Amino acid sequence: AMTPRHEVYWIALDDSEETLREEIRTCPYSRIVVARDNDIDNPLGVVHKKDLLDSLLTNGEFNVETLV
User: Fold this and answer.
1) How far apart are CA 57 and CA 39, in angstroms?
2) What are phi and psi of 47, to 5 degrees?
3) Structural domain that includes position 11
4) Which helix (H) or strand (E) covers residue 37, if one does?
């Protein structure tokens, strides 16, 4: 069964880095839908929280778009 749209956890690339960090930190899921233009109808893909953490710890970078 598909998850209803209003229950999908997603982040917008247009948000500030501070907002993205907080949304990702508090997200209860391991995968997060990433959208552009603050619009869930314009999804870019999915990012894994562990990939973000790995990138941050390895490179010191926090770039969601490169991991989607």
Assistant:
1) 29
2) -120, 145
3) 5-67
4) none
